[in-house]
Amino acid sequence: MSNKNEDREVAVQLSGVKKMYKLGQIGGGTLQGDIQSWWARVRHKEDPNTKIGTDQRLIGQTFMALNGIDLTIYKGEALGIIGGNGAGKSTLLKLLSRVTAPTAGEIDIYGRIASMLEVGTGFNGEMTGRENVYMNGAILGMTKAEIDAKMEDIIEFSEVREFIDTPVKRYSSGMYVKLAFSVAAHLDSEIMIMDEVLAVGDMAFQKKCLDKMRDAAKKQGRTVLYVSHNMNTIRQLCDRCVVLNQGKVVFEGGVEESISMYMNSSKSLAVVNDCSGERKSKFTDKKIHIDTVTFVGTDFPVYQTGDTIHVKVDYNSKENMSNLAMRMTVLSPDKNAVGLASSRPCIVATEGENTTTLSLALDWLAPGKYIVKLTAYSVNEFGMNQMHDIVEDCFAFEKVQTLNDNNRMNWNHSWWGYIMFPELEVK
Amino acid sequence: MNGKYHTHISSRHKWYELHLKEVWQYRDLIVLFTKRTFTLTYKQTVLGPAWIFLNPLISSIIYAFVFGGIAGIGTEGVPQILFYLSSNAIWIFFSTCVTKNATTFTANANVFGKVYFPRLTIPLSNALAAVIQFFVQMILVIVFLVYYVATGAVHPNWAAFLLIPFVLLHLGMLGLGCGIIISSLTTKYRDLAILVTFGVQLWMYITPIVYPISQLENEFARALLMINPVTAPVEVFRYAILGQGTIMPGYIILSALLTVVLVIVGVMIFNKVEKTFMDTV
Asked: Most CB atoms closer than 10 Å: which of A177, A228, A365, B18?
């Protein structure tokens, strides 16, 4: 991948970018407060503006929202930026859209930037749709002549033609957003920055927006930077991803790998899986506690078609049971359920430590990385299930594609899903 | 294409980078902001744009009643309504430049936090709106002026009318400079936003607005009046319109120098603050 990139034109270059925020209060907020604090410091007295109960060591401490970002974004690519809350995604976009300046480092941007950190910035309820298009367009950097030339397209795309001369305060929220997005989508900029703005409008409009963005990247050679928590839109739009964690780039590469990397950062492939952690579920009676899950007959949980997973489950039971059952919920890396495998309620457990081995055949599972949620429950005489223990993110395994599989194409989950049916018979 | 639009963002801020070229590229935005100021002020009012005339007329009548009537301050023979109307027009122009711009950052924080455009467009559009408002008020002044000239009550210096644009430029820049300095400081200290309202009111009383200079006999008050950089340009304006007052070249030059310094320092502070004010506002 990197070889291919070297001869591509650079759109954005970040080197050593850091952004520091001050923790605690910034100044006193008022001049009087600052002078009071200063006077107290001069006399070595306690600062009267310190909030009671706060750790004084924290005041004046700093927080690195971005801690040394080195990143090259090439022209014409749709780059997805993913990461948990507080990873620094929004701060990065803020720096790129010049809303705030970096504390250290250099950013070079080749081309004009249209930032859509929010749709409808500068929209004013009292002004009509048309007036707002002019206003918003100008704020985003268009000249009046450019807006005039695009007005028809913008109105057409927005689907609010009948209301274009009505004050936008009378608009429904959907109409408002559609109009606002249309303006942003028609900018002549070379680089587009979007922060989850697509999470608005109805499904049809969302799709239209995504298509518009994809066209911008694929056909017009524009660069799109997209931040979202919705992995499906990331899959649909982006062709490369960057995973941020604690203000640093922790992964850069293909979309699927990045998504697994981000989604699964807490669960990695391991033979022995410790499950002694706290349980979040409130539906269990805690009569069973699963301690460890160990893969049997393999040194690494990577499988092929035809293989069967064998796991040894060690658990502690508070009473004797004869109708215990276990089930595995197989989840995709972005935590969507793929399928369920249940045992018969025939496991016999005695009070104290127990071990049960479970086997799961993987024949129909599509290649990819999976996470398993393990549940222990029992079925009473009336057929009701009683949950004893649920372990989210219990263990992870991977199924790899082999030449023996009937489908030899590189499996794309967004197109084909997670089931690889047996070969289609021809009669 | 790479060479055409290249933006370099660095953590190091150079104090002499004023980015004025970029402001010019966004001139359409300045016009739109200016337009918005007017369309929004009079939306959903019964009288609409008529307020732009009614406002100064009502305050001039109140001034005439309070200062001319109750306090008995003379106007050197100029009809009271014309005196206060013209004073009011020039003072409103200056004070709008100060007060409106003093809240540039705090009032627009939501927009500034989401998208970049040269922040100076806001103060400039405020100043432009103030100029337009001034000219509309001048229509009212001219109406009264024509009447009083016809009756022989005032004798304007018509040639000095050519100086009015320079007076506007001078006072506009002075107001803008003060305004953006205050706005840069209010990102951290909100107190100034409150103080500025009182400050500007106080400023009016040490400027010959509701009285002519000649009415002031106290030496200290007179000195204070002359230090005030607004006094000299206001006197030029009054000399032209009312044919009273004097042109004081020394004080005008002093005030102009101060204005230039204030504007340059203001724009520098403004550009420095605009980079990171989102983190402190």
From this structure: A177
Q: How far is B270 from B281, CA to CA, in rounded Å?
A: 14
- Joined together, the tokens standing for residue B112 give 């500034």
For chain B, the average pLDDT equals 85
Tell me if ipTM is over 0.90: no
CATH 3.40.50.300 domain span(s) along chain A: 69-263
| The pLDDT of residue B31 | 92
Q: How far is A39 from chain B (nearest CA, A)?
A: 17
- For B85, the token pair is 């109307």
Residue A54 confidence (pLDDT) = 47
Residue B173 has a pLDDT of: 93
pLDDT digits (tens, 9 = 90+) for B168-198: 999 999 999 999 999 888 887 777 878 888 9
Q: CA neighbours within 13 Å on the CB side: how many for A187?
A: 28
Domain assignments of chain B as residue spans, ordered by start = 20-280
CB-based contact B115 A105, cutoff 8 Å: no
Chain B residues near residue A127 by CB distance under 8 angstroms: 36, 39-40
Partner residue facing A99 (CB), from B1, B116, B192: B116
- For B7, the 3-state DSSP assignment is strand
Residues of B in contact with A108 (CB under 8 A): 6-9
Within the 190-249 window of chain A, which residues sit less than 8 Å (CB to CB) from chain B? 190
CA-closest candidate to residue A335, choices A301, A308, A371: A371
The gap from C-alpha B7 to its chain's centroid, in whole angstroms, comes to 34
Query: Which pLDDT value is given to residue A327?
Result: 93
3-state helix, strand, coil split of chain A in percent (to 5) is: 25, 35, 40
Q: Which residues of chain A have pLDDT under 50?
A: 1-5, 28, 53-59
Q: Which two tokens mark B231?
A: 């006094």
CATH class of the structural domain A69-263: alpha beta
**Residue B11 and residue A98: Cβ atoms within 8 Å?**
no
Report residue A318: phi and psi, to 5°: -90, -15
pLDDT band at B1 (very low <50, low <70, confident <90, very high): very low
Q: Which of B10, B32, B278 sits opposite A138 (nearest CB)?
A: B32
